[in-house]
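Review form for a predicted model. The reviewer records the input and the model, then writes brief findings.
Reviewer: anonymous (R2)
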Amino acid sequence: MAVGERDLDAALDAVLGSGSELAPAAAALSAAYRSGRRPGEVLDDPTAARAYAAVRMPATFAAVRAALRAAGPGLRPTTLLDIGGGTGAAVWAAAASLPSLRSAHVLDGSAPALALGRGIAARAPDPVLAGATWTRARWPVDLPGADLATLAYFAGELRPEQQVAVVAAAAERAGAVAVVEPGTPAGFADLLRARDTLLGMGFRIVAPCPHDLDCPWATGSDWCHFPVRLPRSARHRQVKGARLGWEDEKFSYVVAVRDGADRPEGRPEGRPEGRIVRHPVQRKGMVELTVCAARPGIERVIVSKRSGADYRAARDAGWGDAWPPHP
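Model under review:
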């Protein structure tokens, strides 16, 4: 049974209680992050873990779900390994977007986060979540095998050389790897490191990149990231001291699959010819798209009303969608 935001919100409400009670702990957590401390350094306290789940689980769930859905129907894992999974947002996202999934295993260094994640997942109307395995592990660690390995908002807890080692270990043990990081310049730098590692180990990119070439934004002042809008529950608004009923999460991601001998020269299933990498700009009788493609890289595509079906598709297209719509 697929799960959604309402199921996650209901589980969080049942386990976390009032958002107003967690607001002071959430504020302290935000202050710790701003001071440069890493999440793994502040989540070894049950109250901090609860505040983290209240503040970050909905946004992480939305970002990872968007990344996995962008990979298309070709991503059909039955087993999932969530590395540095904390309270399990990525497992919720996988259960929501991958109907083939049958089992999940979460590894993290924080015992309170794992215990909380297990309690939240136990309230999910999905057997994959309710039956997930939660294991405490410090890095480096020998990873179990899985069809898909996820690393969500985890690289920031590691030094660059550790990031490379963990992604490489995941690639050795999984047939597909999904990495999701904050949509910031620093998060994108971590993401690029993971992308390069996966390509160096023979993996091929499924999403968001339409190619396996060097990223055209690897150098320069811009960076590749995407938005996802998620609804805020009453508890989420309370704990963040927010008024709006929604928030926009910006994230960078890569989903890659092990190259198969049956398609060494072909395009991996689900990979688009191009990807819209900024908000489309609509003007009278035309739509301007910023598209990343294998050649020539980042380009501005003007779709006029004379283009018929493509123009109608461009008017409905959004940041992060595949382009062209009819490959």
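Findings: The chain has a mean pLDDT of 89.
Further findings: The first strand starts at residue 79 and ends at 83.
Recommendation: see findings above.
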